[in-house]
Amino acid sequence: MRKLAPGLFAVSALVASVLASPAAQAAGPSASQLLAKLTSCSQISNGKYRSDTETSANIPVCGKNGAVWYKADLDVDCDGQVTSKCNKNTDPWFQPDTAFHDSKGKPLVADKLPYVVVPSASGTWDYRKFGIQGGGVVAVIYNNKVEYAVVGDTGPTNIIGEASYATAVGLGINPDPENGGSDGPVHYIYFKNSKVSPIEDHGKATSQGEALAQKFLNEN
Q1: How many whole angstroms separate alpha carbon 69 and alpha carbon 71?
Q2: Domain 13-219's class?
Q3: Low-confidence ranges of the chain (pLDDT < 50)
Q4: Fewer CB within 10 Å: N-end or C-end of the chain?
């Protein structure tokens, strides 16, 4: 479920060490190349979203060729299978399930799989009508870094800007589900009609994401 007002916190030494590894270095289009295509918003949502319960509704969902996107914060989602990092003791809002399941029919593992939480379908915006589905590829951009994730969970109908523990780690954001996250700006680009199978294969999400990001640059 959606987390509340995480604020902006320092990145832990663990996250820093992960980002320093060669395997963590991004390929494909750069963050600046993608952001250059997001300088204006053609709003496709019928209204706007809040980033947290206490903020005003000022975040539109925007359309581009082959994608939809928005700029928000990043609240850390730890929902899914119980692990040492994600459980009811580490996360006051913990739920042992995700909207979309892995190839074995089990909830996703938030501290291992980079995934994004999409707002549940509503009159404001129905993601399903825009080619977005469970397992769809998402480019998440923060602090000059791109992390490719999948659509893994759904959240409230009025709040936007949430991603898994593993997504936060990949972006160098404090992944603590209770007091981590980032106030942003974090950009989320959902590539229409994309799907990673199996959903838990992050390598496929990354390779597909790099190709789709290049296609996005070419078409916008």
Answers
A1: 7
A2: mainly beta
A3: 1-26
A4: C
